[in-house]
Every structure is written in structure tokens, then in C-alpha cells.
Design brief:
The protein has a six-stranded mixed β-sheet with strand order 10-11-9-12-13-14, sandwiched between helices. It is an alpha/beta fold and 333 residues long. Strand 10 and strand 11 form a beta hairpin. Helices cover 16% and strands 23% of the residues. It is built from five helices and 14 strands.
Length: 333
């Protein structure tokens, strides 16, 4: 999935179908006089339905098609024949998509399972035909109900990535490099900050043909929860990750301070994020010798207060297997 094709926020206009009109018809048949009313009901208008599709990873298709309209119900006819229902329209979305009202910003529904279907707008009911209105005092009603009009409105589709592991770190911490090494994803990698402008996904292959999904979230900076940098826009993707992998480079001035800043940004954005499983990976550790690594371990044992950590190097392929094992164990506890 290329960076330009990742779309996680779109506005669409949806319209459900109108109900068909009821029929005003009087029965006519040879040798039968005054056959009475036999007008049928109108058909129901088509629904607008959101459907989960596990094969989709982005909302990119909605860049080109933003208006969706369901079919109208057919009108009723003679012999109490009911009109056909309008054609429902199914809108496939990736798992993790939520739907908001564009005016109130209220969350209306979310799609989290493959094949899950939820009606966004119901089609209008069909009108009743004139045979419903006959009585002893009104034997020849010459009226029927019109169909109810469908509904329409503007809505926002917002994608929150469903991934097992979310990479959290400052810009240029090596998140994209790790993703490229541990998965088959090919994110953009360069030696300047904010190389990653969109979240990237990759599937980590584990033992016995097992796997889990890892997401590389654009770098967070101090103040991201207030809108600084890119972090505020993409912090919502971390909400759906089961485990958070904090990536901090070994050449950082203060590893524990960086970890505290990242943790504080998550807390200010959504305190519930602190309830997730956390693992700290010290990246670029190939530049450390054993003596320096031992010194850092003693400091981390003191400062991280029991949070699990390990040393890795994506370039030198050091600690990658141990990282996979630790993440797999955390995901399956």
C-alpha cells in the first residue's frame, strides 16, 4: 500500500430510496360488477448499508466516488400486487471504520468484523394501496398512500487502523526501518524527520505459519496531543492497537525522558491508551558495546519501573527474533 493511496478520512453524501406509491385501482372482470378496490402497496425504498471487508486497508476508493444513492421502490399495481423493493446499496469499508454525522460529529456506528453489515439510512416505506381503506361505509375508496421519501445526509467515514502492534516513537527513531525489516512492507526511509506521512501496515511472519499485523504510525513530537506536528492527526490509529511498541534510539540523550514524553502525549490524547500492553525497544543498538549496554540496562531498570525493554538493531538484524518472540507472547497472554 503506497503512501499516496492511504486515505483514512473522507466525507460522503448518502441517499436512501423513496418508497413506491400505493395503487388506486378498481377490479374489472367480465361478469363481475363492482369488483371493488384491489390496488396494491408500493415497494420499500432501498437501504444504504455499510459492510466490513477485510481485504480493504484504506478509504482510497472514496476519493473518486463520494455520492451513493439507493434505488427507489416500485409503485403498487392492480390485483393487490406489491411493487418491488428498491435496490439496497452496499458500501464496503475496511475493518476499523467508524461513521460520524458530518453536522454533529456524533459517532453513529463502527465496523470491526468481516461481513458485518449495518444500515446507515433506511429506505422510505411504500404507500398502502386503496384496498386497505375499503369498509362498509367506504366501499370504493379512490385514494391510496404516497410512498415515504428516503433520507439523505452528509457523513464522515473515519478509519482507525486495526493492528496488533502499533509503533510509537519520535520522528527518525527507526520505525520505518524496523517495519521494512520485520515485514514485507516497503515504507519510505530517509535520514530526515517526518519521512512517514501516512501510517504503514505490515504483516509479521512468525513460527508455524502464524502472523500478526504491525502498524508504523507517523512520528509523535512533544505537544502532539495539542495538534503539533503530525501526531495529533494519527494518534487515533493507536487506539485500536492491542500492544504498543515504543521505539527509542540508543543515541538518545535521555531514553527514559523520551519514553515519559511519549507516554504523556498518549495520556493527554486518550488516558485509556495507557491500559494497553507496552514494550520498549532500544533501536540502533549496534552502535553500543557490551559495557555501555550494561550501564544502560541498570539505568533503564531504575527509570522504566518494570516496563519490559530490549535492545535491537534493524540494520544489523540484532534482537529481531527476540522482539518477535516477546511481541507474540504479549499478544497471546
Amino acid at each position: 500500500m503506497t503512501e499516496g493511496n492511504f486515505v483514512d478520512y473522507v466525507k460522503v453524501f448518502l441517499t436512501s430510496g423513496n418508497g413506491g406509491k400505493g395503487s388506486v385501482h378498481l377490479h374489472r372482470e367480465k361478469y363481475i360488477t363492482k369488483g371493488g378496490p384491489d390496488g396494491g402497496d408500493g415497494g420499500r425504498g432501498g437501504h444504504v448499508i455499510l459492510r466490513g471487508n477485510q481485504n480493504l486497508w484504506t478509504l482510497v476508493t472514496f476519493k473518486f466516488k463520494k455520492h451513493f444513492r439507493a434505488g427507489h421502490g416500485e409503485h403498487g399495481s392492480k390485483s393487490r400486487s406489491t411493487g418491488a423493493d428498491g435496490k439496497d446499496i452496499y458500501i464496503d469499508v475496511p475493518l476499523g471504520t467508524i461513521l460520524r454525522d458530518a453536522e454533529t460529529n456524533e459517532v453513529l456506528l463502527e465496523i470491526t468484523e468481516h461481513g458485518e453489515e449495518k444500515i446507515v439510512l433506511e429506505g422510505g416505506m411504500g404507500g398502502r394501496g386503496n384496498w386497505h381503506f375499503k369498509s362498509s361505509t367506504n366501499q370504493t375508496p379512490r385514494y391510496a398512500q404516497p410512498g415515504i421519501e428516503g433520507k439523505e445526509g452528509s457523513y464522515i467515514l473515519e478509519l482507525k487502523i486495526l493492528a496488533d502492534v502499533g509503533l510509537v516513537g519520535f520522528p527518525n527513531a527507526g520505525k520505518s526501518t524496523l517495519l521494512s525489516v520485520i515485514t514485507s512492507a516497503k515504507p519510505k526511509i530517509a535520514d530526515y524527520e517526518f519521512t512517514t506521512l501516512k501510517p504503514n501496515l505490515g504483516i509479521v511472519q512468525y513460527r508455524d505459519f502464524q502472523s500478526f499485523v504491525m502498524a508504523d504510525i507517523p512520528g509523535i513530537i512533544e505537544g502532539a496531543a495539542e495538534g503539533r506536528g503530525l501526531g495529533h492527526y494519527f494518534l487515533r490509529h493507536i487506539e485500536r492497537n492491542a500492544t504498543l511498541l515504543f521505539l527509542i534510539p540508543a543515541d538518545s540523550n535521555d531514553i527514559s525522558k523520551e519514553y515519559d514524553i511519549l507516554l504523556d502525549e498518549l495520556r493527554r490524547y486518550n488516558p485509556e491508551l495507557l491500559d494497553k500492553e507496552r514494550l520498549v525497544a532500544i533501536s540502533k543498538s549496534d552502535m553500543l558495546d557490551e559495557e555501555l549496554m550494561d550501564e544502560m540496562r541498570s539505568e533503564l531498570d531504575r527509570d522504566l519501573q518494570g516496563v519490559k525493554y530490549l535492545f535491537i538493531s534493524s540494520v544489523a538484524q540484532q534482537g529481531i527474533v527476540a522482539l518477535k518472540d516477546r511481541l507474540w507472547a504479549m499478544l497471546n497472554e
